[in-house]
Design brief:
By secondary structure, the protein is α/β, with parallel strands linked by helices. Helix content is 26%, strand content 26%. It contains 5 helices and 9 strands. Strands 7-6-5-4-3-2-1-8-9 form a 9-stranded mixed sheet. Helix 4 links the parallel strand 6 and strand 7. The structure holds zinc ion (2 copies). One zinc ion binds next to loops.
Length: 212
């Protein structure tokens, strides 16, 4: 099962141009099996998500919601994909506090694009070397802003830590949907099942064609 774990829509992410309904159609066209909406600091409310989930299921897609939380810590900016928190987190201060909160509530945290170059030209817009020490549940290795070297560094760190690597498109425009995604060994229909599969390491990052 191929799921794009990292997608933004214009409904809750001002920086995205994607209408949710278009997203579902595009994902179906691309042959994805599922999508996780990861708006910035916002979890889709269940009542707003329900009609979209229905639309998705008519196209054979599973639609789930997590969120992407930005931590502004010591002058740096780190992004994390959060799955299983039942409320919007907003922005974070320290990654440690975020991870502690999410774990206490039964969720998981994946470092988003840890080695995405910062627009300031120095350091990363991502957790960077912190992925070696933070209590993460996964590392996003395949991401459009990761070059081969960034990918390798992220993959090596995940391997050393014994945590899974994931892929996501971070789509803000329709053409990006599903360029990278994550392959799940088992079928996933709820965020809880998705969490269990990531925790058990039964996932692999893949490119748009479903290959590693
Ligand atoms: Zn991000
Ligand atoms: Zn993002």
């Amino acid at each position: 099962m191929i799921i794009d774990l990292h997608v933004h829509t214009r409904r809750y992410s001002g920086c995205s141009a994607i209408e949710p309904e278009d997203l579902i159609l595009k994902a179906a066209q691309r042959g994805l099996d599922g999508l996780v909406l990861t708006e910035h600091g916002i979890l889709w409310p269940d009542d707003k998500l329900a009609p979209l989930r229905e639309l998705a299921s008519t196209h054979g897609l599973v639609l789930l919601a997590g969120q992407e939380v930005t931590c502004l810590d010591k002058g740096t900016r780190q992004d994390f994909l959060v799955f299983g928190l039942d409320h919007s987190y907003g922005a974070g201060s320290s990654p440690e506090d975020l991870i502690k909160t999410v774990h206490a509530e039964g969720g998981i945290v994946v470092a988003a694009h840890p080695f995405k170059p910062s627009r300031l030209g120095v350091g990363y817009h991502g957790a960077g070397e912190l992925i070696h020490s933070l209590d993460l549940d996964g590392v996003e290795t395949l991401h459009p802003d990761h070059d081969d070297q960034a990918r390798q560094k992220a993959a090596d760190a995940a391997k050393n830590r014994g945590i899974p690597a994931t892929g996501g498109s971070d789509a803000h425009d329709l053409f990006q949907v599903g360029v990278y995604a994550t392959r799940f060994e088992k079928s996933v229909t709820t965020i809880q099942e998705l969490i269990e599969q990531i925790r058990s390491g039964n996932v692999l990052p893949v490119n748009g064609a479903g290959r590693i």
